[in-house]
Structures are given as C-alpha cells and as structure tokens.
From TrEMBL:
GO molecular function terms noted in the UniProt entry: nucleic acid binding
Organism: Acanthaster planci (Crown-of-thorns starfish)
Family annotation (InterPro entries): DUF5641, Retrotrans_Pao, RNaseH-like_sf, RNaseH_sf
Signal peptide: none
Protein's gene: LOC110990918
Protein known as: Uncharacterized protein LOC110990918
Length: 969
C-alpha cells in the first residue's frame, strides 16, 4: 500500500539512499531517491491513510456513498473488514470497493469470507484470495483460522479464539510483563483472567524488585500456576456476530454498562441487548475492561467512581462505532455512594470526585444510572479476577444478569441515593456575610499616584486636556483646530498641564488659605491678591505671606518684592511636603542634578520656581530612599551591638571555650633556604588568656597538628570559634569525617569521666572580621610584642628562635592587665591578668569544693593555697573585669532589620564601588535578641552568606521600585 502513495518532489531529498551495483563495495555507489513511501518510515501510515480517504472523497459521486463510507470507516491502515447480511450484498460490496480503489491506484486483494459462494464468485479470482484459501481443495475441506487485526478468527465457525503461546522467558519482572502483554485482547473479553497476571506484576513493582531480579518462590509459584491456567483459553470460542442467527428484523437495541471496584482492581463490562419484531431477546458481551488499583492507597468509593467513569468512556466509544440507531444506554453500579455523587445537585465535592462526577454528568443523566446488587453485578469478576476455567463457565460474565434476558425494561431505583453528612469527599459548607457597597472611583489626585515620573504625569494630563478641548469644540459645533489627536505634545501644553496639576495639589493641601485669599477683591483673579486679614495661627503658610496669582496658583508673598528679579523668582509656587506630585517633582530635579546632594537638589527646585514646605527634610528623605544614591553613597547596614555570648561571661577552666586564628607569615632561615612560618593563636574566651603555636603552612594538616599540641598542653576544648579560613573549614570537615568513623559512645564515655564534652566548631560569617574582635585584638598585641622582641634579637630567625619568641610574646600578652588600676593608690591589689590563672592551672573544677579563707595562704596543704588563689582570680574577674563588659562602645542604636526579598549591594573591599554585586536577601538569621546580623544572599551567579555590615540596602521589600531615568524637561 505504501508504494502506491507518491512523495512530493520537494520532499524526495529526505529519502535519498546509496546503491552498490551488484553488491560490489569497490565500485562507486550510486545515489537514488525514493519516489514512493517506504515501509518503516514514520510518516508512511499517516500519508497512506490520507491518500486512501482522499480517494474516497474524490470518487464518492461515482461509486456511491456506501463504498466511500466503507473506505473511510472500515479500514485500519491497509486491512478492511465489513459484515453484511447476504452473499449478494457482499459481492456488490466487493465490486464497488475494488473499482473505487483501483481507480485511485490501490489494489484490493487477499479476500476472505465465511461464505464459500462469495469466495468462489467470479468477482474474486483465486489469485486475489487470501493465501490459505486460494486452493479449491481447501475450500471444500473447510476454512482455516485467520489472524484479523491481531485477533484469531475461525472462519469456519465464525468465532474469535485466543492463541496462548509463552516463550521461554525468565520469571522476572521483565519476563512476566512480556508474557502478560503477549495475550492480545483488544475488546477485553478475557480481561478478568489477565487481571490476575497484572496483579502479580504489580506486587513485584510494589516490593521494589528490579526488572531482572529473581522473584521470591511464593510469587513464582503463583506465576507458574497462572501460566498453566491461561492455556485453557485455547478452548474458548466467542461468537463474532452480535445478532443471533434466528433473529428477524431488529426493533430496538440497548447498551447496558456495569462497573465495579474492589481493593484488587476496578472493572467494567458492556452488553448489547437486541430485541426483534417477535419479542425475542439476544444479549452479547461487547467489551470489558479490568485495571489494577493504584499502588498508593485509594478509598473504595473513589475506585467505584473511577470505574463508573470508565463505563461512560466505553459508552461514548461504542455509540460511535456501532451502527445501530437510537440505542438506549443504561448504567449500573453496586455503590450507592457513587449514585449519590451522580444525583447530587446541592453539595460540592473535593477535586478528585468533582472532576469525575462532571465527566459523568457531561455524557449521561442521573436517570440513566441504576443500582444493582453485588451478586448480580457481572463487572465483579473484572474487578477481582478469575481463572480461565471459571471465566469460560461464568454465564454471568458472558450474558449478564438475568433481567437482561427479558424484553422488560431494567428495574429502576426504589430509594433515592442520598449523601452522608460525614462523607469526607463532601466539602463543608461555609457561610459568608457579604456587604455590598456602591462602586467608588478614584479622584483626580488619587489617579496621580499611579505615576512614577513627573514628566509622564504632565504629558498624560496634557493629552487629557487636549481631548477635553476637542470635545468642547465638537459640542459647540466648531471645527477641530491643530494640534490634532496624534500630533506630539507641545511645550505650551506641558506648561498648561503643570499648572493644572499644581492647582489641584494646592486645592487639596491648602483649601482654607485659598478660600481666604479668594474673598479679597471680590474674587477677581486678574491681579495678584494678598490677604489683608492674617491667616490663622495654625496655618503652615503664615510665615510666607502667601498670594494668589492671576492663574489661581498659591505663591510666596515674602519680603523681597523690591528685588530686581523676575516675578517667578520673587514669588515661588507653594507646594505641600506630603503630596505625590511633590515627590515626583523632587525626584525629577534630583535626577536632573545627576543625583547630587540635598543642597544642589534643593537649589535646583528653588530656581525652577517652587517652594516646598519642609523642603530640606523632604529632599533629604527622597535622597535617602533613592536607589541610585544608595548605590553611589549608601552606608553599610548596621545593627545594635549584639549581646556577648555565654562563653565570655561564665567562669570556666582556661581554654575550655576558645577561639583560633592564624597570623604571619614570618621568614626563617633553614641553612641557605628561606621558609615561611605562621603563628596559630588560641584565645580563651573567658579569661582572655592566649596560647601560641607555630605552623609550617596554612594547610588543614598543619592546623590539626597545632590543635593537637594545644589540647595536649592546655587540656580539652569544649567549643572552638574561628573565621571562615579554608584551613579551618577543611579542619572542620576532616574532624567531622573522623568523628563519623570513630566510636562515638566510647569517646563520650571517656570524656565524660573527665567532665568534658567533645569539641564543636562555631564559625563566623565570611567577611565578618568584627565578629572575631575578641581574638583579632590579641593578634595586634602579639604583633607589638613580637616586633619589640625581633628588634632586640635581630631579624634572622630559625625555627628554635621563632618558637622561643612566640612563647615570650605569649607570656607578655598573658601578663597584660585586664582591668584599670590606679597606681597612685598604695592599697590597690595587683592588676588582674590571665597569668594569675594560668600559673595555677592543674585540673581546675569550678566551683572549687570547700570554703577557703585567707589563712589558707599559710596552710601546709598546698592544694588549698592553689584553690584560694584561683578563687581570688575569679572573684576579682567578676567584680572588676565582668562589669566592664556592660558598656557598648559603638552600635548603640537599634535599626531596621534586613528582611527577606530586600535588594542589597554587596561590599567588596577589593573592587571599586561601581563593580559591587547586586543581590537579593533569601534568608535571614536572627540572633538571640531577635536582631538580624547575618543574611544569605542570592546573586546572579551564586548564593553567599554575609554580615549586614558588608551590605548596602538599596530597596526595601515593601517599597515599589521607582524609575531612575532622567526625564526630558
């Protein structure tokens, strides 16, 4: 068939191929193009079908509508099937269809029929018959079994049969799926048997077996049992013709659709009921469907409703395919809940039920639905499954319930289906009291709020005024004068629009002042008028001595009338501070000033002839909100200084809560080579003592070695703070990996005996050096001490000398006083320093056991003397040093918290300001006091964490963006 359909010339290049003459690969291949469609080409079936149906349309007038309809409806690609009543009709059908197809270039052949007279007629030569019936001897002996559209058709008995042949496939998910799918049953006549195989396959999927995994023995036994059982379908024969042989003329046809669902599956079956003129009844199974239930749990009412929807879809399909006229449809279900859903007109359902009920109501009416007892429902096998032998003997499946065998109408529902008030699918009714209001329309000034540009506002008002003027002329019958509706706005029109905007703004802001001034001089506006009666004391214009000009605008009267300048300079137009047009005006002149400061912007506004009440504050407020100004000059965000952490406020053994940082490098000599060394500073958060180790590099291994030396000398650490150095981050990740491999319970038990928890890291935000001030300041002190020591010992160092200097610097810094001491007072105790505690450190336990007094200094028991000195250190630490931590030296004021979706500028100390990145806040991290000091930012390339001191706020989340373009004047 495909070779009978040509390819357009412009499309043949897509079907090029190379041809080797005689199969000789040594010869040059020849290039050809296909002129017809190919087998295996994706577009071939569609093009062939289109050509065949086009031929039917073209020759319908010549060969009749019946022949054309046969080509349109009865062909599936290149196979045509048709059933008629008599052999004469069949021969006429063959003759007309053959002529129609031959005229359009298609040849009909491979004919087969269940009547020998038709096959032996002259209209069908032996060469045009199907291959198995070309021999006359075969016709005399009987018809063979033919494969028709994939279905086995026994021509002799005119019945459908099933061919069951399982190849040797392994008992896996893949093999089971292939075997179940090999039984071709397009009408679902044996769907209850196939449902059992599908349930076995679904159980394997639910248990997580892969495609080629071996299945468990229990499932394998079920599978083998099903395979043997399916072979019984070979003996099943289903009559092809719906109309019984004894029937005469058909008087009526009905389709009865049954649906059911269970926990294993949901199914449907449809029956055609025919009644002839003698009252005889014939019922035949037309179509059935079975599906397994979803893997996720679904309620039985929902499954029943899904099966009902399937019945409606089958009904629509059969109505289109069956050629009976005026077919009545009846639908049955054994679920009263589903009948209640379908008959409901007053309640609303949730989405799942509502959508499916809508599909049912679109194609059926509630009167077509009936309730049937479960025992009489023929769809029950389709929802639960049956063995092949049981299905063959199931009269209920093949013929339907007993009432279908009578000519009487099917029974109707006696009781109306009602929905339960506790049904979870029914939406709960909500009652709302609605108060109707008359529509309100914004005033002219409220409409000004829609604009974000002074120029656009003036231009829009100018267009409106032009339109109003044209309407006035049209009403008066005058001809329209230029400018027309589409000509550009002129400068005069912009000035007139500006006057109108200013007039409306002043009328809203200063109605009382304008009323007082209008009373002067009889209300005439041809001269400037100044109030002879002073304004009220509460008037904001009292000090300006205002006047009204001839245009009705409120201006400053002032006291410079004698100046030799223009009237617009002497008498500026007065505007209120809090008004949207005023904000647009300030923004306009601020942009024209290239975002200069407050003074320049204010001068430009005054030179333009405007006097804004509270102008300095208004301009300052605008420049503070201006995004461009924030980009150019905005200060970093800040927040009130945070509370000190607990590890700095609570007494604890030295270095229990510590911080770490690197400093350096220092050049040393190793023979002739110069090498770098770094200092590793460990600072006690409570006593402010320091411990210094040396590191050969900034690597993670070097840091871990220094950390091990530190803990061996100073004891275990409960918490270690650091910045975001890569060596510390690497150290933290390696410690975490090591911890994961260690025996955690054993470590905890051993450390718990010593009263210590396992070490945890607490890293600062990137670029937040101020958050590490407690130990960054120690680095400065150490550098000062090292500078003096290096000056004394010379600059040529080796490893031994560097370590010595580091320890000397450590001793110097640990001897520093923590509190202020007045040296003029003779009885002042020795200054409090970290060394007072370090020199006593053995295994300190706080609070120390017992009560110690001054006499313990002279005690023979040395440990009591040590505990007394430690007690004295912590007592003085609380009374002298602890109270000094109260004061906030800076950042004393609470500010607005950065919130999610704020737009900020990320400060980069290594790039000019114009190259700083824009970012959006995607997450905030509140401190214990509720203030935000750390944020997570999203840039165009990455996601970062930064302290608020490293960002500049550009745009609040709740502030709509304003246009920052400079508009033309």
């Amino acid at each position: 068939m495909f070779h009978q359909v040509g390819v357009n010339v412009e499309h043949r290049n897509y079907l090029r191929f190379l041809w080797l003459e005689g199969g000789d690969i040594e010869k040059r291949p020849e290039e050809f193009r296909m002129k017809v469609h190919l087998f295996g080409e994706t577009s071939s079936p569609a093009c062939a079908n289109f050509a065949l149906k086009s031929a039917a349309d073209a020759y319908e007038n010549t060969h009749g509508k019946a022949a054309a309809d046969f080509v349109r409806r009865e062909f599936y690609v290149d196979d045509g099937l048709k059933s008629v009543t008599t052999p004469e009709e069949a021969l006429e059908l063959i003759e007309t269809r053959v002529n129609l197809c031959e005229q359009s270039g298609f040849r009909l052949h491979k004919f087969i029929a269940n009547n020998k007279d038709v096959l032996q007629a002259q209209a069908i030569p032996p060469s045009e018959r199907a291959k198995d019936v070309q021999n006359v001897k075969v016709l005399s002996e009987g018809f063979p079994v033919e494969r028709t559209l994939g279905v086995q058709w026994c021509v002799e008995s005119d019945t459908f049969q099933f061919r069951v042949h399982f190849s040797d496939k392994p008992p896996t998910r893949r093999g089971i799926m292939s075997s179940v799918s090999s039984i071709f049953d397009p009408l679902g006549l044996v769907s209850p048997v196939l449902l059992v195989g599908k349930q076995i396959l679904q159980s394997l999927c639910r248990d997580g077996y892969a495609w080629d995994d071996p299945i468990p023995d229990e499932t394998r036994a079920e599978w083998e049992k099903w395979r043997l059982d399916v072979c019984d379908l070979v003996s099943l024969k289903i009559r092809r013709c719906y109309k019984p042989e004894s029937f005469s003329s058909i008087q009526s046809a009905e389709l009865h659709h049954f649906s059911d669902a269970s926990a294993e599956g949901c199914g449907q079956c449809s029956y055609l009921k025919l009644i002839d003129d003698t009252g005889s009844v014939g019922t035949t199974l037309v179509m059935g469907k079975s599906r397994v239930t979803p893997s996720k749990p679904v309620t039985i009412p929902r499954l029943e409703l899904t099966a009902a929807v399937t019945s409606v879809k089958v009904s629509t399909f059969l109505s289109r395919e069956l050629e009976y006229k005026n077919v009545k449809h009846f639908f049955y279900t054994d679920s009263k809940v589903v009948l209640g859903y379908i008959a409901n007109d007053s309640k609303r359902f949730h989405v799942f039920v509502a959508n499916r009920v809508q599909k049912i109501r679109d194609s059926t009416t509630p009167d077509e639905w009936r309730h049937i007892d479960t025992k009489m429902n023929p769809a029950d096998p389709a929802s639960r499954g049956l063995s092949a032998g049981a299905l063959i003997d199931c009269k209920l499946w093949w013929k339907g319930p007993a009432f279908l065998q009578t000519a009487d109408a099917p029974p109707r529902n006696d009781e109306p289906a009602e929905l339960s008030s506790t049904d979870p699918e029914v939406k709960k009714a909500s009652v709302f009291n609605v108060e109707a209001h008359a529509p309100t329309f914004p005033s002219t000034l409220e409409r000004f709020n829609y604009f974000s540009s002074w120029f656009r506002l003036r231009r829009t008002v100018a267009v409106c005024l032009r339109y109003i003027e044209r309407l006035k002329r049209r009403i008066k019958g005058e001809s329209a004068t230029p400018p027309d509706a589409y000509s550009p706005i002129t400068v005069d029109e912009l000035c007139l629009a500006e006057q109108r905007i200013l007039h409306l703004t002043q009328q809203q802001a200063f109605p009382e002042e304008i009323r007082v001034l209008n009373k002067q001089d009889g209300g005439s506006l041809d001269i400037q008028r100044q109030s002879t009666k002073p304004l009220s004391k509460g008037s904001p214009l009292r000090t300006l001595d205002p006047i009204l000009d001839e245009k009705g605008l409120l201006r400053v009267g002032g006291r410079i009338k004698q100046a030799s300048v223009s009237e617009d300079v002497k008498h500026l137009i007065v505007l209120p501070r809090r008004s949207h047009p005023t904000e647009l005006l300030i923004e306009h002149y601020h942009s024209q000033s290239c975002h200069a400061g407050r003074g320049i912007t204010l001068n430009n506004i005054r030179q333009a002839g405007f006097w804004i009440l509270g102008a300095r504050a208004a301009v300052a407020s605008h420049t503070w909100k201006c995004v461009t100004c924030r980009k150019l000059r905005g200060a970093p965000c800040g927040q009130k200084m945070a509370e000190l952490p607990a590890d700095r406020l609570n007494p604890s053994p030295p270095f229990t809560y510590s911080a770490v940082d690197f400093f350096g490098p220092f050049l040393i000599k190793d023979g002739r080579k110069e090498m770098k060394r770094w200092g590793v500073l460990f600072s006690c958060m409570a006593s402010r003592a320091v411990h210094i180790e040396t590191a050969n590099s900034l690597s993670t291994d070097s840091f871990l070695n220094a950390y091990r030396r530190f803990t061996c000398r100073r004891g275990p650490v409960r918490q270690l703070r650091s910045d975001r150095g890569t060596n510390f981050v690497g150290g933290r990740s390696e410690l975490d990996d090591a911890l994961a491999e260690m025996n955690q319970p054993k470590i905890c038990r051993e450390l718990l005996q010593d009263g210590c928890d396992w070490v945890t890291f607490n890293m600062n935000v990137p670029s937040a050096s101020h958050m590490a001030g407690a130990w960054e300041r120690m680095i400065r002190s150490i550098r000062s001490a090292l500078s003096a020591l290096l000056h004394r010992n010379g600059c040529q160092l080796d490893d031994e000398l560097l370590r010595t200097l580091m320890i000397e610097a450590e001793a110097i810094v640990n001897s520093r006083p923590l509190t202020y001491v007045d040296t003029k007072e003779p009885d002042v105790p020795e200054p409090l320093s970290p060394n007072q505690l370090l020199t006593l450190k053995g295994k300190v336990v706080l609070p120390p056991p017992g009560v110690f007094v001054q006499q313990d200094l002279y005690s023979r028991r040395r440990w009591r003397r040590v505990q007394l000195l430690a007690n004295q250190f912590w007592s003085r630490w609380k009374s002298e040093y602890f109270s000094s931590l109260q004061e906030r030296k800076k950042w004393t004021k609470s500010r607005r918290n950065i919130v999610k979706d704020d737009i900020v500028l990320i400060i980069d100390d290594n790039a000019p300001r114009c190259h700083w990145q824009l970012a959006r806040v995607i997450e905030t991290f509140p401190s214990l006091d509720g203030y935000i000091r750390k944020v997570k930012l999203q840039t165009s390339r990455s996601i970062l964490e930064r302290p608020i001191h490293k960002v500049v706020l550009l745009l609040d989340r709740d502030t709509p963006p304003r246009s920052q373009e400079t508009e033309p004047a």
